[in-house]
Design brief:
Elements: H1 2-23, E1 36-44, E2 59-63, E3 66-68, E4 72-74, E5 80-87, H2 96-109, E6 115-121, E7 125-127, H3 135-143, H4 155-166, E8 173-180, H5 191-199, E9 203-210, E10 219-221, E11 227-229, H6 260-284, E12 289-292, H7 297-308, E13 311-317, E14 327-334, E15 340-343, E16 346-348
Parallel strand pairs: 5-6, 5-8, 8-9, 9-12
Antiparallel strand pairs: 1-13, 1-15, 2-3, 2-14, 4-13, 6-7, 10-11, 14-16
Helix pairs in contact: 2-3, 2-7, 4-5, 5-6
Length: 355
């Protein structure tokens, strides 16, 4: 009997040590009156190559310029919770089948322990399944996706709801992949409020600007989000054709109707604004911005999954944070001369609520 009890203690102790090695401290009991701040971090060199095998001592974390003790450290072996968020508004009508096909390819790239949530947005937000690693469940969710007949595209509200609701009780590495043209019609949360909310979260967001046929065709979008008007597609003025002499009755023009030039300019502005907000969302959350189309979506998804496999996660306990709503600046540095660090930039003990 004593031998069996001793063997049980040995097995239990070994399991506990192995679990601790995997999580590297993220399952510690929260200290009283202190909050654990989680920081996802990606480190690369000047050429964009990821720097692997970094240790806890290679990192330094500052809050409001004051160095913090790193209480938790996790490497890229930790499973990921991914929310794949697809735009199903009318603007993606001609592209949705292709988007669904590439989304299915992305799901197959995930590791067995990673979990995925599928959600869409049009005039409302639709969460199709809870976080799961079951490929069949995810494929069934993809099959149900279709374009909405209702007018609206609540992209900002969708992001806020995923961060505040779907990820509310989720620990570990959290990622959102958003495929959209960036246009929003119907969200109550403003772009500024959304960026404040996202900046304070520990969720990395990768945005993919998927150019649809309804986007302003004369714009060229670079990989860093810069928008220019293409010279080769600028409209040339056509010589007016000679009209045959006819008789007609003059009808006063409606002054409130926009001209073709005004409509074109509005479409251009909407596309530029959509690209700008997608770029800001990615930059704010330490994610990345991509320009996607049919030809390169699979490559983009492979790049994202590769980067997720190179992500670190740090944690530190704030001192006397309580329920204050003051935003604190966060800075992460790495003891390497050529290191480029991407991480969240702010923390607020009491998160702001979106409308």
């Amino acid at each position: 009997m004593k031998f069996i009890f001793a063997l049980f203690l040995l097995i239990f102790s070994s399991s506990a040590v192995a679990l601790h090695a995997q999580t590297s401290g993220f399952n510690k009991i929260q200290k009283s009156n202190k909050t654990l701040v989680s920081i996802p971090v990606v480190v690369s060199d000047q050429e964009g190559r990821y720097i692997p095998n970094l240790k806890k001592d290679d990192f330094t974390v500052y809050q409001d310029g004051v160095k913090q003790d790193i209480d938790s450290f996790s490497t890229y072996n930790e499973p990921i919770k991914v929310a794949l968020l697809l735009d199903t508004s009318g603007s993606t009508k001609d592209s949705l089948i292709k988007i669904k096909r590439t989304a299915n390819d992305f799901i197959k790239l995930l590791n067995p322990n990673d979990q995925c949530l599928l959600a869409t947005f049009d005039s409302k937000v639709n969460v199709l399944n809870s976080f799961t690693a079951d490929q069949k469940v995810l494929e069934k969710s993809l099959d149900t996706i279709q374009n909405s007949t209702q007018v609206g595209s609540v992209m900002r509200r969708a992001l806020a709801e995923i961060v505040q609701k779907s990820f509310k009780d989720v620990e570990g590495r959290k990622v959102i992949i958003l495929i959209s043209d960036g246009k929003d019609f119907g969200s109550f949360i403003t772009p500024h409020s959304l960026l404040d909310l996202l900046e304070e979260s520990d969720t990395m967001i990768y945005t993919i600007f998927y150019k649809t046929e309804q986007d302003y065709s004369n714009l060229a979008v670079s990989s860093d989000g810069k928008v220019t008007e293409r010279e080769d597609t600028k409209k040339r003025k056509k010589k007016p054709k000679k009209k045959k002499k006819t008789y007609s009755i003059a009808i006063p023009e409606l002054e409130d109707l926009p001209s073709e030039e005004e409509i074109e300019q509005r479409e251009k502005n909407a596309t530029v604004e959509g690209i700008d907000i997608l770029k800001k969302i990615a930059d704010t959350t330490a994610g990345r911005f991509y320009v996607g189309d049919v030809s390169n979506m699979n490559r983009i998804f492979k790049e994202i999954t590769s980067e997720l496999g190179q992500q670190y996660r740090l944690g530190y306990y704030t001192k006397d944070a309580g329920n204050e709503i003051t935003a604190h600046d966060i800075k992460v540095t790495v003891d390497r001369p050529d290191a480029v660090v991407r991480s969240r930039g702010k923390f607020r003990a009491k998160q702001l609520q979106s409308q």
